């Protein structure tokens, strides 16, 4: 058939349009960077409060999608958005800038959605794009955060038959080291009351530089800084005094004051060391997460990710932080103690973190009430390699794994994308250094042949 010039032109124009739209949206947002699914899930039938989520399906799943694990990412520091986790740390595309001005998206080879479905959740309500109807509704404790999160997670799972039976994991960073145990604990309690088909198929929680048992953790800063050569004996004594203040306030039940006292410990440590940030003592400048704010200020970008265009995005919402101030020093260790008897628990710490680092975690882990704790503490701490190169150390016994990630501070997936990807995948799939004793062969490096 011989086509007329007009049909050819129309066809060419159509083709051009198609080619163009598959390359990028008008904002330069590559279509392949668009989430698989995103939106709002109501958390309270009586109000408009809703949790915003952004889901990326696994890029190269190693199992049928209906069996591919789903990992929910929970950002730390009360009121800070998981969009930082997504576009700055572990999502498939990261916001970058070569000149500090113009911004673009760049594929992240270490993305955590290589073989896992990845869901970023803005929790609690009022955070990021999530909606808090009223100020009074802002959560003040982990139980109300977990209730909202449970509504969001079950709402998500029920939204697609493909999600129904997939193994569920939560990863929480920093203060998210409380959210993940809290939602895990809540799910276990709910599951006990529900028929199997209604239960959440919870398999594990991962805590990255987590704040879990603050009373124990706040006592480690002085010693950690001293033996790292960052403070002298006199400064160490001064920090110890400040730490003790926080401990005493906790014992008096003055939770908000205790949180403020902890903040003073960290502020003092920052002042005397002169560091740009305590999140990573090798950094000499501030993190450029502000680029994410800039990126998400565009109405077109908001539309592209399914967020409400009229929402003014902020990395952290101080009203949410204030509402949770009295929760900061409260422990969730008892929740981890229940979880480790039922599901897998991974603790991982970036080595350069001065806030919630390696020593901080060691300190509370050894106080765990768990029948296997002695054997865990006696377990060998193994050298962990990725593609033949030293990546850190892993100690594992029964359901508990504790990993130290070298070459990074608090934001592990940001600085060590490939190693963090190897870690989370191997832990979820029980392979490599995370294989159970029986399954593990001589080599603990599953990617040696890559
Ligand atoms: C740390 O330094 C800042 C800036 O000089 C000051 O405002 C703040 O009070 C100091 N904090 C402490 C705990 O000394
Ligand atoms: C977006 O947010 C505004 C202001 O909070 C609200 O009035 C509007 O209903 C929201 N739109 C949608 C589609 O949810
Ligand atoms: C570890 O978790 C499994 C479920 O994955 C559970 O059946 C088992 O009892 C737990 N093991 C220990 C030692 O707590």
From TrEMBL:
Source organism superkingdom: Eukaryota
GO BP: any one term: proteolysis
Keyword flag Aminoacyl-tRNA synthetase: no
Pfam families for the chain: Peptidase_S10 (PF00450)
InterPro entries listed in its UniProt record: AB_hydrolase_fold (IPR029058), Peptidase_S10 (IPR001563)
Signal peptide location: 1-24
GO molecular function: serine-type carboxypeptidase activity
Family: Belongs to the peptidase S10 family.
Name the record gives this protein: Serine carboxypeptidase-like 50
Organism: Turnera subulata
């Amino acid at each position: 058939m011989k086509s007329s010039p007009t049909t050819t032109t129309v066809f060419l124009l159509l083709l051009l349009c198609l080619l163009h739209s598959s390359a990028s949206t008008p904002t330069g947002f590559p279509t392949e960077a668009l989430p698989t699914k995103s939106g709002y899930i109501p958390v309270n039938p009586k109000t408009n409060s809703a949790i915003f989520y952004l889901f990326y399906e696994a890029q190269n799943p190693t199992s049928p999608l209906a069996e591919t694990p789903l990992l929910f990412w929970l950002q730390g520091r009360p009121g800070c958005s998981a969009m930082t986790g997504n576009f700055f740390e572990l999502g498939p595309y990261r916001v970058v800038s070569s000149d500090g001005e113009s911004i673009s998206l760049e594929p992240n080879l270490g993305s955590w959605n290589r073989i896992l479905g990845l869901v970023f959740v803005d929790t609690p309500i009022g955070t990021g794009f999530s909606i808090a109807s009223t100020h009074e509704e802002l959560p003040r404790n982990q139980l109300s955060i977990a209730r909202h999160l449970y509504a969001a997670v079950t709402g998500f799972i029920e939204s697609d038959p493909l999600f129904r039976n997939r193994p569920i994991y939560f990863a929480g960073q920093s203060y998210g080291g409380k959210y993940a145990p809290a939602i895990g604990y809540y799910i276990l309690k709910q599951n006990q009351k529900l028929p199997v088909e209604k239960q959440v198929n919870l398999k594990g929680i991962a805590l990255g530089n987590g704040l879990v048992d603050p009373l124990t953790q706040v006592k480690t800063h002085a010693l950690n800084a001293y033996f790292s050569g960052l403070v002298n004996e006199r400064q160490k004594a001064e920090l110890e005094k400040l730490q003790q203040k926080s401990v005493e306030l906790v014992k008096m039940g003055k939770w908000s004051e205790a949180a403020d006292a902890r903040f003073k410990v960290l502020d003092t440590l920052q002042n005397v060391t002169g560091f740009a940030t305590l999140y990573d003592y090798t950094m000499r400048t501030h993190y450029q997460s502000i680029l994410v704010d800039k990126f998400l200020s565009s109405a077109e970008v908001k539309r592209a990710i399914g967020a409400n265009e009229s929402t003014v995005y902020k990395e952290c919402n101080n009203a949410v932080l204030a509402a949770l101030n009295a929760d900061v020093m409260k422990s969730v260790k008892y929740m981890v103690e229940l979880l480790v008897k039922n599901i897998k628990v991974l603790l991982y710490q970036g080595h350069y973190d001065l806030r919630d680092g390696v020593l901080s975690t060691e300190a509370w882990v050894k106080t765990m009430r768990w029948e296997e704790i002695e054997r865990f503490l006696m377990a060998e701490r193994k050298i962990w390699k990725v593609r033949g190169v030293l990546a850190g150390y892993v100690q594992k016994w029964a359901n508990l794994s504790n990993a130290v990630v070298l070459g990074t501070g608090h934001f592990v997936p940001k600085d060590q994308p490939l190693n963090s990807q190897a870690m989370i995948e191997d832990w979820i799939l029980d392979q490599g250094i995370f294989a159970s004793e029986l399954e593990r062969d001589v080599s603990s490096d599953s990617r040696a042949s890559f």
